[in-house]
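input
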Amino acid sequence: MITRKDIDGGNGFDWGQTSEAYARYRDIYPDIFYEKIIRMGLCLSGQRVLDIGTGTGVLPRNLYKYGAEFIGADISENQIEQARRLCAQAGMNISYVVAPAENVNFPDGYFDVVTACQCYVYFDKDVIFSKIHRVLKDPGHFCILFMTWLPGENEIAFTSEKLILKYNPAWSANGMKRFTYDFPEQARGLFEAEDSLCYDVSLPFTRESWHGRMKACRGIGASSLSADETAAWEHDHIEYLESVPEIFDIPHFVTVLNLRKIGKGEDPSNPAPGQ
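output
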């Protein structure tokens, strides 16, 4: 269980509680999401990549075909169990370790790339940048990625959020809007920003897959709601979805910050875009 004062009003959450739903419903990033990673020269053949906060290994599994050697790390044993199961089914040779990002233990300069998809908010920023700087080769890259729906631009997403808040009013991941990552102060002197992207995508869902996606979010599946509260939300959400088309699109946005490691003796001339 993770507890953070700045997330969900301090209520605990545990992604391991929703690992089965996560494995089934959260592998939804579109092709362009992965293509943009490749265009930045990341996760290619000949590179060793550490994916922190890997969850069920969505990023390594979808980038596997490009030839990089992946290791995934996650704080949840249940998430890693699902990642290993999915890799075995697909015949993929990806290594996984159970460890929080702040405690991963690898030799200095071991990785060409470190990725963090959908998990950066949970990290201890005072620890993570020096840790990643140490395990990256010189030069190496730390790529932070995030995608979410836009409830202000879609009635289905808005109403689904409203129903989550009915049962979990402390859930703080609602009402998301477009943003770009600010350059982290804790990364100054260790990294410089090489790419900063923000773009829109529209993703197709069925009633069943959208319900599963919402169930696998922090506000429901990973939350500290009781079984009765979760069942009541499920009833209300399924009932609502009966009023919408069987297939629909939900607008999302993606934001990416690709940081390059500053090597020994190198002048940090470009700490952040526009600075």
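quick obs: Strands lie at 48-52, 69-74, 95-98, 111-117, 136-149, 191-206, 247-261.
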